[in-house]
Amino acid sequence: MTSPAEYAQLRAQLDTLTTEAFRPELAEIDRLSTLEIARTMNGEDATVPAAVADRLPEIAAAIDATAERMARGGRLVYAGAGTAGRLGVLDASECPPTFNTDPSEVVGLIAGGPTAMVAAVEGAEDSKELAAADLDALGLTADDTVVGVSASGRTPYAVGAVEHARAACGALTVGLSCNAGSALAAAADHGIEVVVGPELLTGSTRLKAGTAQKLVLNMLSTITMIRLGKTYGNLMVDVRASNEKLRARSRRIVALATGAGDPEIEAALAATDGKVKNAILVVLAGVDGPTAARLLDGSRGHLRAALHTALHTPPSQSG
């Protein structure tokens, strides 16, 4: 049970946070028309990309460090509570179909576990010990990257995750918050503080802060995957064709990358078990399926490198 003194201390902390600040000019927003409220909210949202832009050097540095470790077999792990935790789980869950990653490669941890995705789990976000236990269950290593996500930058679960990851095994740590001078950023190797200012509804950090976190997490995962060779230009050549829409997208990606006609595309996909990246190599380099697989293995999955090798290696050596 929290004591009156502890409540007073927490309130004092919240009073210092930009994300919790009260906006007097919006005190009668409920008296505006629906269209006026929508315009006001849209105007607030429009300020978020500029706040993210201010932190691009820090974001890029975190991505390069993450990609370096993932290239050695490390994992990307998000840890957060509430909206921040849900955004991490969302980003992680979209990596397998988009980049053909194993579900264990990008992981989202939310305080309170899967139940917390759809319902509040009281007290979970206040536990640093819970964060440590969740990370220990993953068997964390020094090649892993742990990203603590918290709008306030003070959430014990997120701060505890970063602290434990550094102390337990020397994992790379990133702290993503929306307040300057946050404990989360201070605890991490790479602090990213996207200051979006007070919310339309006081303290409702699922709004601008949530949007900022979504944008940064999109960058962390997407650009890391680009660095790891999961794309060819701006094409998702590692897409996993698990349904009809994605199978159609696979064929379209091969067509965009090669300019080949449908019969050649179908033959290339058939020769490579439907693997888009391999099929592109078959078409562009004129090699068979097994050779494409060997070339990609030799280039650690980077299609441009494999293509360069195929086109600059005598047939007797590449075939």
List the helices and strands and how they pair.
Blueprint: H1 4-15, H2 34-45, H3 48-53, H4 56-70, E1 76-80, H5 82-93, H6 95-99, E2 106-110, H7 128-136, E3 145-149, H8 156-169, E4 172-177, H9 183-187, E5 190-193, H10 208-227, H11 244-258, H12 262-271, H13 276-285, H14 289-298, H15 303-311, H16 315-318
Parallel strand pairs: 1-2, 1-3, 3-4, 4-5
Helix pairs in contact: 4-10, 5-10, 7-8, 11-13, 12-13, 13-14, 13-15, 14-15
EC number: 4.2.1.126
Protein name: N-acetylmuramic acid 6-phosphate etherase
Function: Specifically catalyzes the cleavage of the D-lactyl ether substituent of MurNAc 6-phosphate, producing GlcNAc 6-phosphate and D-lactate.
Describe, in plain words, how this protein is organized in 3D.
The chain has a five-stranded parallel sheet with strand order 2-1-3-4-5, with helices on both faces. The radius of gyration is 23 Å and the shape is globular. With 319 residues, it is an alpha/beta fold. It is built from 16 helices and five strands.
Keywords:
single chain; 319 residues; alpha/beta; five-stranded parallel sheet; 5 strands
Mean pLDDT: 93
Structural class call reads alpha/beta
The total of beta strands comes to 5
Q: What gross morphology would you assign? A: globular
Cα gyration radius (Å): 23 Å
| Distance linking N and C termini | 70 Å
- The tally of helices reads 16
Helical content, roughly? 40-55%
Spell out the helices and strands N to C. HHHHEHHEHEHEHEHHHHHHH
Largest sheet: 5 strands, parallel
User: Stretches where pLDDT falls below 50 for ≥5 residues?
Assistant: none
What share of the residues does DSSP label as strand, in percent?
5-15%
Strand order of the largest sheet: 2-1-3-4-5
Pfam family, one: GKRP_SIS_N
Protein name: N-acetylmuramic acid 6-phosphate etherase
Active site: 94, 125
Domain SIS: 66-230
